[in-house]
Amino acid sequence: MISLYPENTPYKVYTQSEWYGDKWDAMDYGRDFDFNRPFFEQFKELQLAVPRMNLDIVNCENSEYCNYCGDDKNCYLDIAGEGNEDCYYNLFTKFSKDCIDCTFVYNSTLCYETLNSYDCYNVKLSQYCNNCSDLAFCYDCIGCKNCIGCSNLRNKEYYIFNKQVSKEDYAKKMKEIFNGSYKNLQNVRQFWKKHLVDNAIFRDSYQVSCEDSSGNDLKNCKHVNEAFNVTNCEDCAYLYDVLDAKDCMDLNYSLYKPELSYELISTLSMTNSAFSMASHFCNEVFYCDQCNNSKNLFGCDGLNHKQYCILNKQYTKEEYEELVPKIIAHLEKNGGFGEFSPAKYSPFGYNETVAQEYFPLNKEEASKHGYNWQEQEQVSKAENADVINAEDLPDIIEGAGIAKAIKAQSTGKLFKIIQKEFDFYKKNGLPLPRKDPDQRHLDRMELRTSRKLFDRKCSKCAKEISSVYEQARKEKVYCEKCYIEAVY
Ligand SMILES: [Zn+2]
Q1: 26, 50, 153, 334: least CB-packed within 10 angstroms?
Q2: Long-range pairs for 388-393: beta carbons < 8 A, 24 or more residues apart
Q3: pLDDT at residue 273 tops 80
Q4: What are the residue ranges spanned by the domains of the chain?
Q5: Averaged pLDDT for residues 61-76
Q6: CA 440, CA 429: separation in Å to the nearest integer?
Q7: What is the pLDDT of residues 161-209, one digit of tens each?
Q8: Ligand 1 centroid to 482 CA: how many Å?
Q9: How far does the centroid of ligand 1 lie from the alpha carbon of residue 204, in Å?
């Protein structure tokens, strides 16, 4: 099976159908709480005993190579997707169709290598575009159509490098860029990278329809403090990749209206809950993992439709209400209550997690912090695969498809092109990628700003601002007032 746990994991890993099936009962692993031992040690033992799902996907169709996805159809290597169809290699892309290599793209169709964008159609190699169609290499455009190499435009049509052009000039330029040649597209990429830094205006932080909020990549937020990639949230702080939260703090990847919750990761629809992960539709659960449709749980793993359980053991309401405060007092005495499970109990190595992408550490640094480290295989197993080196691919691919696995230039990893993906490239005059999907994801990470706020000055009026761009960056970074004056 395909799994997010490696072969040598100490956890028991079940396929999804097995995990949801009725051949096992998580309550069989129930145990008494031992007041002579630390809580986290006992919780970890429970986690090692209870089977884990190979992948966390909910209600998906023909999308078995995806993870953390819900309602996806015909998707491939789509991560944290929701309601997508025919989408490949995207991260956190929602309600979209026919999109490839996109990150944080919402309600969009036919997009390629696009980031942080909403309501787009046929937008390629662009970032921060909303309500746009037929764009390539654009940055911060709203309501635009048929534009190439433009930045900070509003409601414009047929523009190249921020200048009005004829319909014919636009069509000619598109043909030149998207002629299927890898070398050609690489040259345009390089040119655009420099052109963007030299010409575009960058906002101190990217916020749309927000009130009294700080952070970056915020949309429709009110009273939200230090949040990143967050939409429709109110009275919250320290959120990363969260939608529709109210009165919450310290959430990561939590969706479906979390409320009054604290320190959750990878959850859906949680209320009055804290210190839990990979759990969905729960109320008043604490220190829980893989629990669904439950309430009043403490330190449980793998439970569904349960109430008043501690370490997977059933109690009466009265017993539960008497025992939980005692365990909390025990945790407080040992300095542990009020924080997430210590990182050393994570099922993953630091280097396998998203943390490594935003706050990279080497093995030594990670071990100083007490984080796990997972040695990874450098090169894919390929004993029987028919392989072609990426550098040996012809500049323009003709023909019906590609039968061979490609060995990535930079990493040596093997990857393949699926038929629908090939058709997409061919139809859009795009070359085959030379890098594996993981590396392409990391390249897109490079285009994004860090999840830190720096004190700096506005490049125009020198006002002190808080920004995701450090002072030393080459981009022109404007305060809100200067940005609005310049763009509108
Ligand atoms: Zn300014």
Answers
A1: 334
A2: 390/434, 390/435, 391/434, 393/182, 393/432, 393/434
A3: yes
A4: 222-343, 387-434, 454-487
A5: 94
A6: 19
A7: 999 999 999 999 999 999 999 999 999 999 999 999 999 999 999 998 9
A8: 4
A9: 9
- Determine whether 433 is exposed, middle or buried from the number of CB atoms within 10 Å of its CB (0-12, 13-18, 19+): buried
CA dist 355 and 229 (Å) reads: 15
Cα(200) to centroid(ligand 1), Å: 15
**How far does Cα 204 stand from its chain's mean position?**
22
CA 164–ligand 1 middle distance (angstroms): 28
Instruction: Give CA–CA dist 251/287, Å, rounded.
Output: 14
**How far apart are alpha carbons 219 and 367 in whole angstroms?**
37
Is the sign of the CA dihedral 358, 363, 367, 371 positive or negative? positive
Evaluate if residue 62 carries a pLDDT over 90: yes
Q: CA-CA distances (angstroms) from residue 86 to 71, 74, 96, 433?
A: 12, 5, 9, 18
pLDDT at 284: 98
Among candidate residues 18, 5, 3, the one with its CA nearest the CA of residue 372: 5
Question: Measured in angstroms, how far is the CA atom of residue 456 from the centroid of ligand 1?
Answer: 11
Q: What is the 3-state secondary structure (H, E, C) of the chain?
A: CCCCCCCCCCCCEECHHHHHCCCCCHHHHCCCCCCCCCHHHHHHHHHHHCCEECCCEECCECCCCCECEECCECCECCECCECCECCECCECCECCECCECCEEEECCECCECCEEEECCEEEECCEEEECCEEEECCEEEECCEEEECCECCECCEEEECCEECCHHHHHHHHHHHCCCCHHHHHHHHHHHHHHHHHHCEEECCCEECCECCCEEEEECCEEEECEEEEECCEEEEEEEEEECCECCEEEEEEECCCECCEEEEEEEEEECCEEEECCEEEEEEECCECCECCEEEECCECCECCEEEECCEECCHHHHHHHHHHHHHHHHHCCCCCCCCCHHHCCCCHHHCCHHHHCCCCHHHHHHCCCCCCCCCCCCCCCCCCEEEHHHCCCCCCCCCCCCEEECCCCCCEECCCHHHHHHHHHCCCCCCCCCHHHHHHHHHHHCCCCCCEEEECCCCCCEEEECCCCCCCCEEECHHHHHHHHC
At residue 193, the pLDDT reads 95
Strand partners, 292: 280, 304
How far, in Å, from the CA of 467 to the mean position of ligand 1?
12
253 Cα–ligand 1 center, Å: 33
Rounded Cα distance, 55 and 398, in Å: 36
The CA radius of gyration of the chain, in Å to the nearest whole number, is 24
How far, in Å, is the centroid of ligand 1 from the Cα of 462? 6
